[in-house]
Input
Amino acid sequence: MRKLLLALMLVMPMARAVLVDGVAISVGNTVITRSEIDQRIRLTAFLNGETADTGEVSRREAAQRLIEQKLIAREMDLGHYPRRGSDAAQTMLDAWAKANYGGDPAALAARAAEYGLTPGEIGAELVWQSEFLTFLNLRFRPAVQVTDEQIRAYFMEKFAARMPAAQQEAALIELHPQIEEALTVEGSDRELDAWLRDQRQRTRIDYVDKSLLEPPAK
Amino acid sequence: MRHRYAKSILAVFLLSAGVTPHAGAQSDVRSAIAELEGLKIAGIVFDPPQQPLEARDLQELLPIRRDGIYRAADVRTAIERMFASGRYKDIQVDASPSAGGVLVKFTTQNNWFIGGVNVDTDVSEPPSAGQMVGATHLQLGDLFDPAQMAAAIVNVRKLLADNGFFEPSIEPKYSYRDSSQQVDIVLAVQAGKRAHYATPLISGAEPAGAKPPAAAAPDARKTIVTAEELVKATSWRRFLLPGYRGVTLSRTRAGIDNIRLRYEKANRLLATVTLEGMDRDTVRNVAVPKISVDPGPEVTVTATGAKVSHKQLRQNVPIYEEHTVDDDLLAEGAVDLRAYFQAQGYFDAEVHLERQQVEDGKAQITYAVNRGARHRFVHLEIQGNRYFEAKTIRERMFLIPKTFEFPRGRYSEAFRRRDAATILDLYQSNGFRDAKVELRVMDRYAGREGDLAVFVEIAEGAQYRVSSLTVKGPAKLDVSRPVQTLASQKGQIFSEFNVAGDRETMMQYYGANGFPAAAFAWSSKPGAQPNTVDLEFVIEEGAQQFVREVVTSGLRTTRQRLVNRQLTLNPGSPLSPAAMAETQRKLDDLGIFAQVNMAVQNPDGVEDRKFVIYDLEEARRYTITTGLGAEFARIGGGTAISDLSNPGGGPGFSPRVSMNVTRLNFLGLGETLGLQGRLSTLQKRAVGTYFVPRIFNFVDFDSTFSLLYDDTHDVRTFESKREEAAAQMAQHMSKSLTFFYRFNYRHVGVSNLKIDPLLLPRLAQSVRVGSASFNLVQDHRDDPLDPRRGIYNTLDMALATSAFGSQTSFVRILGRNATYYKLGEKFVFARETQMGIQPAFSIPSNADLTDPIPLPERFYGGGGSTDRAFPENQAGPRDLLTGFPLGGSAMFFNSAELRFPLYGANVNGVFFEDAGNIFSSIGKMSFRTVQHSPSDFSYMVHAAGFGIRYRTPVGPIRVDLAYSINPPRFFGYPGSYNQLVQCSVNGPCQASLQQISHFQFFFSIGQAF
Output
């Protein structure tokens, strides 16, 4: 009788079973689950104040971003890059609530719930972004060397045409730090992109959910 | 990436700006699964029910439990953890409402891992099966992806094509083992016939650059190397036969290399030779190599400012050795040339590279040399050393004041700097952290022009010690034992060298206990007392890993239990690389596997218990070797039965044929059956052996059982026939020390004796000998084939007695001691002493009273490995009528050799002095050098001589010429044996006085000792 009940319990609900989650993409030894892609779309939409688009293109875009996130997270672990503790999420969330919801956590939670998110998920995302910026600065920024010639060329291209020749030298001196920063950011972005391309080639990436594969270029 | 994240990152920055993102709420992203959130988990099921992770591992891994609360985040974590184990290819989770809450179902698909990869082939090597397996790039234990197989097959196909098999059929076969998720792969390869080379098509062989004008001298227009010479250089044509050889990768590479070398001979060091491809003619089954040649400019290297021979330039400028010319090599040449001049005493020599441009297809490279004054390094003095003796410091130094070997001393600036660093390192590694070392050079030492002295000035400073040692971090492992062995204990010397050693000790301990990710860090701070430090070691243990199961593959005939007995790892043992390597070594030591590959399956998977895999390739079971040889030496005596000429030896030639058949891994038990046969004019011999490599799996013990038939005439006095059975057990006490325990039972018969007929009744008897013996071999030589340093001792003790069924009773003790000393870098002094005694007891009444030991059981000596004053086995007492040797019951031989280089790296010379003899008994042993009468053989016979050794991989080929200083005189009989019998009956026989020749020669393989 018990066996029969067990069998019934196993078989009957199966008819109404729903796929709740599963592997969508594997990146080395880590996975991107279906729910993670969905969450990424909603998080991005929430942070950008947009409507969440769960269409195929949007899912593919989210999947690509998550692949890169996994590669970066692996590098952070291997390289022992600084990670923020669990307390950091709450601190950053509080700051977010203060800046955007008048310091009312309930308002933040209500808004997040509209996107199917919890404050904890938003806090984790804020922590990740902060860690990513630290990683970017530590890993790639030191490799970027900006020369005076590059700064001058940038100035001549972007600013010189808009000012009299007599003022250009003084303006160059004044704008030097900003231009240097802009070029450094550009350079570290290039370094990051090159590194990601390399990591994608070195890492086994399998698309279990084939709909997430980029369509072939026409 | 940053721009992709730009908007999100912007959101973080906007925190302070008080900007609220527009809320475009989406409700459709929350599916019906949200309704499951917070329900009770009524059950968790897996499809298939048999999961790759064991139930207890799954339970530890999953954050969800039956009767727990369902949360989508927990399900995601469960998927992530299961996947990280590396054992799953896909995991999908569905859930459904159930009477008791929600039923969660994991539907999984397993990964497969690469197990044994083998090749089943009809291909005659090359390529070998191992090369084909290597070409697949399928790594044991790695994740198996069917997509890899296409690339693997392409690689094997290319390897086969490189070896002349252009249309092979390659069929992969898979066998899956569910229990270990392992797939064993066999590639069935049918390759067909190997293609042969055809005449290569060579392009570009003309010199590069502008062609000489038509009016130039005829040889200026000559081709550097003709096409015929290039083809010849490849060695692709058959030797003495028409046609070309079969295509192999190594032949192709060697051929291309030889073409380049051919150009190099013509001073075209920059020549490039490229194999552009092989055109295949399927009808003739030949491959036509297409070779492109760029001879490059003619390169000449010269030196100005000093005379440097072409030979020295070739030796010191590495462009010749590296077969290319670049700036680094040319700069290295300048450094090497400077070192060359410094070795000649020009310590101030300067060498500069002056490279000229290429003109008219010629490149001139010139080294400008300024030798400076010639010096002698005459004095080295070490000052300020208190902790280390000067000898300890000097033996670490490159600088050497003038000696016999270095008549001008060894000195250079580079050596001086290196020695300063070495001495400083010596002090610092012994706790003298503030030590200072300076090497001061003084020219015109003692007022003599050109003489140089070096003063090593050492300021030792204080020696630092450890005031306290704290080890932090160990929690899972008890480290009290390894910590006790650390060098950086309280009160001990503090140095980074010691800390590095301690780190090694701790990491090895953690590694051996299955902590692959253990990490070690250390810090120090000044201690309470001056010159002391408080030391702290911090260990991050990481996760401990264990053996889940040991999986073997590749066994065909070998019994699994034989392999299992060698395993030092068991399920549940810590995953220790050292234990894994130990098992690999034990399997290797069985001698029945051509290859033992080992791996941890799923190395990147995050799981505590791992499969350990051994993929075994069984060696060929049958080995047949045949040999053809000859002995050419003063063998001694005529071979005919009645021929009594030359009892003291004459030039002889003895051809020999031999054959060995070995059956490895007999009955799959790892034991070896062997049959060796030898046939020569001096010997007919057959031996059957059965070798058991381990006794009851004790690795230090092995045993050999043998049956022997031997019909030999190497002692020319008689012919002996021996049938023998023997059992031997060897105990390997250490790498250098082995004991042998042996029992022999043999029947020995003698015939065709060339001795006084009146002695025949006593000496011509057959005899059964049963003996037990103990043998010790201690070998500390650096190279057994050609030792340069070390010691070699053997001791053989045997007892033959009626208790063992023996008809004769005696004790045999035979000892040998050899030592080898290096004199400088190239000279070796070697000496050896052998001594043996063989006293008889329970002597039968009919025995020869002068020596009651039966003839074949006596000591025989003299010859290339004992005393080169004698031909082989010609030492000792002799028959007083015929002059043939009778052997003895005591022996003493001593040899000394000075070995030195003679020509190049492979030809050495030897001066030697041998002394010794065989004596009828220990009481007759004497060290006198004069023979009192032709019947006196109890004295030391000396020989001195010269030998040449040519080094080969199987040991040096040896030629020795010896001059015997005091060879024995003896009486021989000038007639035939029948005449001897006649005269023995009828009256006294007329003997003739003879003597062993003063000159002896020996030709063999291997050093004398």
User: Anything to note?
Assistant: Residues 4-15 of chain A have pLDDT under 50 and may be disordered. Chain A touches chain B through 64 residues (CB under 8 Å). The longest helix of chain A spans residues 165-202. Strands of chain A lie at 18-27, 30-33, 205-207.
